[in-house]
Amino acid sequence: GERAVILENSFFKSVIIPGKAMFPATYFYKPSGHDVFFRRETMEQSFMSLDGFFDCMPWVGDSRKRGASKGLLKTAAWQIDARIDGGVATLAFRTEISYPDFTTGRTTHLAFAKTIMGSEKHAQLRMDYEIENKGRDKARFIMVGHARVAAGGKYDRGDYIYAPGTNCWVTEFKWPALDKLGVKPYSWTSWPIEGVVDFAPKEGPEKKGDSVYAFVPASWSVIGDEKSREYVLFHYSPVQMGKAIMRQPFACILHRDNDYLLEISLSRDIDAKNWDEPWATASLAPGEKARFTVYMTPGQGLVKADFEKVTQVTPDRLIIGGASGREIKLAN
């Protein structure tokens, strides 16, 4: 079996499986009475399918079959440190991976560190990332935090996947609304895309294999359930790439006939077939580091219309409707 680390307080119980890069694998939100991640018939099936919050690097997939599916973190050897101080638990996970660059063939050597913090005072998880180029040449990589959230406990009608913004980047797709607009794969288009934000599972003749990946430059995103008014909010810092370059990560939203998922991505592709395109990978010079933080906060009592009116999100609160509007505490 795999080594598991359990993080628990009065708000949640979360299981982390470092050996599969599932940070975390489960997150049972006690106020709602269920896991916020999608669960298959058995937990074994969910673990085999890498459900939960799964980190992928240095690529997610490679349709040219040059690299292992879902990257190298899921088979890496991990160092683990844990401590509790002042009611805050800190779990630090570190590993290193090496791989040949798909174009140059030169060995890329990356150090990857993820630190997860949870407080006894709230339900939020803070996840700090650091990626360092330990090699002698430029390091190219795809880095994605893959969150298979199902707010309300399952995929069903009334779910929504929302991120603020007016434009997005799309990769390959089969999506009628984009075809009608004449949108081409690997291009920018307006956001939101018709039919992507609101989820309704398709069955029978309606099920045609439609799918789209939309990369939205945004500082936050949310998956929610209109019926139960449950949600899981993700807020992410800008990414420091090297010494000075700061940029916003992408909320990468996948919508298919019968499911959806959210990914936090440092570049505008998850397929390594476009390795040489500057938008497809992130890159670091020798000795440079990339740093960013993701905050994951489940909650209850809000619907999509509330999030459409959000004017500010910080790690500890969100504001709905401007300065005189409603303030929702996320963390103390």
What does this structure look like?
- The protein is mainly beta and 332 residues long.
- Helices cover 5% and strands 46% of the residues.
- Strands 6, 7, 8, 9, 12, 16, 17, 18, 19 and 23 form a ten-stranded antiparallel beta sheet that branches.
- The mean pLDDT is 93.
Which descriptors apply to this entry?
332 residues, mainly beta, ten-stranded antiparallel beta sheet, 3 helices, 46% strand, globular
Could you write a compact summary of the structure shown?
The chain is mainly β. It contains three helices and 26 strands.
Gross morphology is globular
How much of the sequence lies in strands comes to over 45%
Distance between the termini: 36 Å
- Listing every helix as H and every strand as E from the N terminus to the C terminus, the arrangement reads EEEEHEEEEEEEEEHEEEEEEEEEEHEEE
**Taking Cα atoms only, what radius of gyration do you get, to the nearest Å?**
19 Å
Percent range of helical residues: under 10%
Round the mean pLDDT to the nearest integer and report it. 93
The secondary structure category is: mainly beta
The biggest beta sheet reads: 10 strands, antiparallel
Helix count equals 3
User: What ranges have pLDDT less than 50 throughout 5 or more consecutive residues?
Assistant: none
SSE topology sketch:
Layout lengths: L4 E4 L3 E6 L4 E8 L4 E2 L7 H6 L4 E4 L22 E7 L2 E13 L6 E13 L5 E9 L5 E3 L2 E4 L11 E4 L4 E4 L5 H6 L5 E4 L20 E7 L2 E6 L4 E7 L2 E3 L3 E3 L2 E7 L3 E6 L16 E3 L4 E12 L3 H5 L1 E5 L2 E4 L5 E4 L3
Antiparallel strand pairs: 1-2, 2-3, 3-4, 5-11, 6-7, 7-8, 8-9, 9-23, 10-22, 11-21, 12-16, 13-14, 13-15, 15-20, 16-17, 17-23, 18-19, 18-23, 20-21, 24-25, 25-26
